Sequence to fold (1110 residues):
Amino acid sequence: MRLLLLTFILLPFFGHAQTRFTLSGYVKDGANGEALIGANIYVRSLATGTTTNVYGFYSLTVEPGEYEIVFSYIGYSAQSKTLNLNESIRLDLELQPEGRQLEEVVVSSEKELQGVKSLQMSVNRLDINTILRIPAFLGEADVIKSLQQLPGVSTVGEGASGFNVRGGSVGQNLILLDEATVYNSSHLLGFFSVFNPDAVKDTRLYKGAVPAQYGGRIASLLDVRMKEGNNKTLAVNGGIGTIFSRASVEGPIANSQGSFIVAGRRSYADILARPFVDILNEGAALNFYDLTGKVNYNLNKQNRIFLSGYTGRDKFFFDKNQGFSWGNNTGTLRWNKIFNDRLFANFSTVFSKYDYSLQFGENERDNFRWKSSVQNLTFRPAFSYFINTNNEVSFGAEANYYWFEPANAYGTSNGSRIDISLPRKYNLETALYAGNNQKLSQRVAVEYGIRFSHFVGLGSGVQYDYNDTTAGTRRTPVAERTYSRNQRMATYQNLEPRLAFKAELNDVSSVKASYTRMAQYVHLISNTTASNPLDVWTPSTNNIKPETGNQYAVGWFRDFGKDRTYEFSAEAYYRSTQNQIDYIDGADLLINQYLEGDLLSGIGRAYGLELYLQKKSGRFTGWIAYTLARTELKVNGINNNQWYATRYDQTHNVKVSGFYDLNKRWSASANFTFVSGTPATFPTSRYVIQGILIPYNAEGGRNNVRLPAYHRLDIAFRLEGKTVKANGKARKNSDYWVFGVYNVYARKNPFSIYFTQGDERVAQGSPLNSEARQLAIIGTFIPSVSYNFKF
Amino acid sequence: MVFTRIVSVIGLKKLTYLLPILAVGVLMACEDVINPNLQKADPVLVVDAWITNLPDSQKIFLSRTQPYFENLLPPAVAGATVTVTDQNGVVYSFIENKPGEYVWVPSGSNTFGQVGLRYQLQISTGGEIFNAESVMGVAPPVDSITFYVQKGNQFVDDLYLAEFWAKDPDEPGNSYWIRTYKNGILLNKPSEIVTAYDAGFSKGGNFGGVQFIAPIRRSINPFDTDANGNFLSPYQVGDSVFVQLHSVTEAAFNFLNEVAVQTNRPGGFGELFSTPLANVSTNIRNAQAAGSKAVGFFNVAAVTGLGRKFNSLDDLTEN
Fold:
């Protein structure tokens, strides 16, 4: 296997004795100097080409000769160059955005990435213009909420953190912001995500067929790339919304040899309430903020550096001593190096931290303080070797050092202080990968790669052995081993092959297939309906085995209509997972030294069909996404050891998004969501113990019924500001208003149905009342208005 | 679980202050009582056997599960034979007093059981035998009860709260069920289930040999609302409070916590943090493993207690 692979990777290096020359360089946006990701470089006479990488770099090696080369990117005027390649040429090029005729939504440049011609499948890509158009909750454009409009992506409901991809849990998504892991992607529980749309350039969600370069989570990769900042002129963007305001500044530095962007947001319900609510002056707080920044500098033609960072925090304080807060901090230092015109490298050093703290107790004699965090420091060299037009080899490595602090906590009771901290955990995750993207013919391409990942727990620390007991009940430690500093503890490794294949049937249709195996060594521990900020990340240990997943996908892609206005795709996937984590009933997950005794392990299977029809141009644009899916787990100790549907199993998931230009200034957008009922567990019976009414399910099943279906319509209208002043001159500034209504017909969509005894105090000996209550997190329509400007 | 408990214990009163800010969120959320169809199920035996060393009649209740929406007293299981035997072979017979209620009455100053002894419950009914086991643990004395005021603000009036003081024994591994009576009425809502492992909330907390931590000491305050939904002061001048510490086994401690998780459903955004509905544990075992199931719990508790009346505002101490 390994030998075969090696042969495959090395094969393209041989047999090309002939002299060849290389055209390479960067493709950028002519308006602001931003690198264009996935721009097309096409050699007409050879009917072949390449695309720019995530830094906008391309390299094309051909036999000597004169070529007409077309540079194109959706939404930009294409440029054609005739070049005489009798030597290698470096060509950095800027493409100009197409003039604003009717402000037409370009849904994405998926033509290159996702469509018929591309090798890549199972990718959802949204550009920021689309994200800004989708009607949003409280009018705030949101990256993650927008992704949920696409096939294969779902959520357990409003207010829930994160998202689910092809049957994966929230913690099985690798979320990267400029390559830094984002451990919790949510603000205000899950109503908003941490990504400030003003600073986001490109968002790509890999639901499968993840390149070998990436690993560490078994469901998906959300790759969010930040803007570099305008290197032509100083620009200010901002918005005033219903719940928070945003502002960003970007501009050139050092004679346009570099640029920067700084973007911030803050919610202000508390600021507005301050004059009316005394306790806010006594330290109570309810807000969130984030700050995103990036700077880049061209050292010379071969070297460019980027520094980017994010800090954000949510605060929820009852007074100055009591409450909780959580936030992410990330920092990424990148160095792009062009070793030669065919070898591009990027070296990234990344830091990421997620922490939360919780404290209560009004005075020093009686209090409780708890801090928890997960941090990692990563070094990641990545190389792309552009061998010829038919082979692009990528290889690299990754070293990831983690330190987990599950609980740095103490309590004071009537003056006696007790340390209840749990020991830190240290881990090293390393990986090597190599892959080749190879065109076998004009119509057939294949990408194959392999990733070897390794994970080790490092001392100091303690490992526990737990007893064997009835499945589904708490296990207790029977033995422990202590490890000294840096001593190796549990060790795991995995080979993760990746394979993708494309065959174009004709000019307008293709079939694709892929296989992806991934391993996950750090786990999000969460047994609540929705993931929440106090969920803990924990590493694999002798008791927690790495989660692994295999995904097989096939797809059919078809363009039709005049100018390929319509694009259709159908993808089917099957995913099997091992060592999925579940929890005993009544598990105690927080500050629990013996947490592992409360965890269960099982297998999962998920399969589905995703249909996607998109209209890409015209006054009316939009898409319909339909997903038919099943996601199940089988865990000893749950549901009588039988398969059961997960909380986020959604049989039918329909999303319709439409955008329509009414006239030069007004445009309308709408989205409709229909999701068939998600599973829930209902009781059959009741009984009373010591005056408390307890629900009982005679079969001991999990998720034995379905909630009613969820459906919702949102609309938004956008009014562009005037483009000319009263005196007829063009305005330098631009602005627009967005008026929206979320949940237009005010449906009370069920988030959950729960069973409880009545709230009243019942005298002893009287019967207790039992009821079922249906909760809608959003029980009404939510109007919003926001004003956005740019100058 | 810790999260919801912390919010419920310390947060509840403070949360009310933030209501005006949360109003947007609270107004958005919406709850309706519904009547879903539930699967039918055969009834099983329910054993409610929480025996103490208090000088009262000790009762064991036998009933059957009933359909979830049947808002009636549970059907009694009459005609059973119920005994509790200690590890020395002493047998306590529980005699049926009325259908489903089996009683052992202490004679003279003789109360049930002894700290440290192991007890075996045996129930014979319908041709089947059910067993359960418990050990009577220790309960430290309640040293005192104090009252304090939490000053009101523009949204709430002054609140008068009670706090009990007790110190967990030095030897770790004790667990308790704290039960409070206000004016003689047991505080027995699901939200009022209070347990302690040593002096803290959970085994992992490692609070041992100290005063019970503040959220537990102050867990004896009922937060009721008036007809308009305003919070009432937990205690007012003239009210009395009586606090009991029941020693429970670790299994019973786990059971009570599971019951709290399954029954204390504050609704609203709290549902985001809820866990799936699951059956709580039981220590009742059918002597024949293949026999019919039973639910419920058997625990033998040592109980300590202390009461105090809130006579006047002079009773208030510094918080």
Chain B touches chain A through 97 residues (CB under 8 Å).
